[in-house]
Structures are given as structure tokens and as C-alpha cells.
Amino acid sequence: MRGGTVLLIFVLLLGAIARSPMTVMAAAAILALSYLGWGGLLEWIEQNGVDMGLIMLTLAMLAPFATGKVGAREVLLSFASLPGLIALIGGILATNLNKQGIDLLSGEPQIIVGMIVGSLVGIVLFGGVPVGPLMAGGLTALFLQIYWWLTR
What we know:
Elements: H1 3-17, H2 21-35, H3 39-67, H4 72-79, H5 82-107, H6 111-126, H7 133-150
Helix pairs in contact: 1-2, 1-6, 5-7, 6-7
């Protein structure tokens, strides 16, 4: 059995223990594609998967505008309140961290397993909610920057 297969089975099992169906489905799908010999599709997923996921997340966030659940009035009122302004700042900071997370994951893919295990531990022990590796990557990038700054 290849090392990557062992790691994927480990992630699948951790996902099952953590009751994280998205992690289980993702690990099972990648294992299945690997065993079916669909390397071309795996490469496509590796190169385009993050972008496709971000498109889906953006669609989900924009859908309330199209369904009429959120209108221009609500948007304008949100900017007139302190919580709305704090949310704006939070969005700016989060997207910056997510960009740093993507850069980190692209440059050092071995970090992904640690982030997945950390996310699963957060789910099991602290009742966390898995929202994907980008924020974990962003926080990891921030912590690494602080570490490098402190140790220079």
C-alpha cells in the first residue's frame, strides 16, 4: 500500500470518528479515484479544486440576494451599525488570511495533514465546525509568520 493511501485511510477514519461527513466523503472519493486509475481527474482536482470550492461558497453566499432574502436596504443598514462595520473588517481580515492559507498550502502541501488532523481534533474535543482548510491554512500562515518574526 502506498504512503498516500495510508494517509487517506487515516484521514477517512479520523473523519468518521469526528463525525465529519465532508471529510469522509472527500477522502473516500479521492481513494476511489486513485484506485480507479483516474490520475488525470485527480490532477485536475488538485489544480482546480480550491477554485471550484470557492466558486460554490461564493454562490451560496450570493444566493440570498437573488432569492430576495437580503436586499440593498439590509446591506446599507449593516454598514450603519457597529456590528456591521466589525463584520466588514472581519471579512477583510479573513479573506487576507485565506489568501495566505492558499499560498501556504500551495508551497508546502505537507502541512495539509496537520491541518486536517487539527480540524478533526477541534471537532471532536471542542465541538468545532469544519469549514475547510483555507481558514486553517490562513491561521497557520499567521502563526508561522509570528514564529519566524519572534525567532529572528
